[in-house]
Write a structure and sequence with these properties.
The protein is 42% helix and 14% strand. It is α/β, with parallel strands linked by helices. Bound molecules: 4'-deoxy-4'-aminopyridoxal-5'-phosphate (PMP) and glutamine (GLN).
Length: 392
Amino acid sequence: MKPGNEILSSYGTTVFEVFSRLAVEHGAINLGQGFPDDRGPPDVLAEAARALAEESNQYPSMMGAPALRQALAAHARRFYGLEVDWQSEVMVTSGATEALAACLLGLIRPGDEVVLFEPLYDSYLPIVRLAGGVPRLVTLRPPGWGFGRADLAAAFSARTKLVILNDPLNPAAKVFSGDELALIAEFVLASDAYAVCDEVYEHIVFDGRRHIPLMTLPGMRERCLKIGSAGKTFSLTGWKVGYVTAAPALLQPVAKAHQYLTFTTPPNLQAAVAFGLAKDDGYFTGLAAGMQAKRNRLAAGLEAAGLTVLPSAGSYFVVADYRSTGFQGDDVAFCRHLTTEAGVAAIPVSAFYDGPPLDGCVRFCFCKRDDILDGAVDRLRRHFARGPFRTA
Ligand code: PMP
Ligand code: GLN
């Protein structure tokens, strides 16, 4: 038999799937894969049900249902002061995953260089490589996840086509500062490049922070493609409703990719997301406040269990250094151990690195019911109280 595409076949099953399966097999509490366990806003669910029963279930417009595109333009104005033309500057996709793929396939030409920050979300590199792009990595390391001018100077060049920026950053839970964004903008301009901005956690930032889209910085309006996801904003990750906002000249080639990837997204879900985006400010501040309380709850519990917790400024995640528990193996061994022996699943942070793996850190997801978080902490405390550990 002839082999399949070697770029894609060189990757294993995603780490999220691997640990979710292992969690089910061992009856572990799954704090690995990032998905909330609440039902999502009841009024948004009701709108999806109503639209399914009462409205068209045929192909909606390829660029997205007009009501949702209008709601996205209103959302951009309300939260970021961005004036967006809903007809030519917004496109609805089947999740942020498709939005990312469409941006990369639509913009990258073979040989183009693509700057990425690692740790990086798992879908970026395979698609960059599939499009013929040449990755240039900027490596961020815990506990600070910082970078400077020299790091960007080493990665950007005249051959840079685009940079992928995930802010807030999964799994580091870093929110890029205004100064860091300004530095990135400077390099994007100097390289005459674009920025694909994965901002799926835009409404999940903590401690009074404000999310700043790179697109709002001087010179960036025409160069950024801003990606969001209703999965994160409405705690409905299975819906796979995403969106891209960009100037017409950038959005057009991306729409060409979208028309051959998925073409459209279920119309009733689009109607419900349009409804959701118009909810009052209290919904959005409540989402962040609720997640922040969960972050605090899990972080305190992990510390009490003997792990060293790193700051989490946004997203669904908190990273912890487990070396304080005395465990000697690498992070994959630790996550396997945790899932099978302690009954709590987490994700090894090394899975988000393409270069030399980072060791000693794992990612926990806190967007779960309080009793689930408390149950996980209880298991961890009892488990680590037993120490010391053998080398895995
Ligand atoms: N980007 C990041 C950083 C993510 O964490 C996720 C996870 N869901 C996605 C993209 C994909 O979003 P969606 O489920 O909307 O495809
Ligand atoms: N975004 C989710 C996470 O980081 C996982 C999504 C997926 O399983 N592909 O956990």
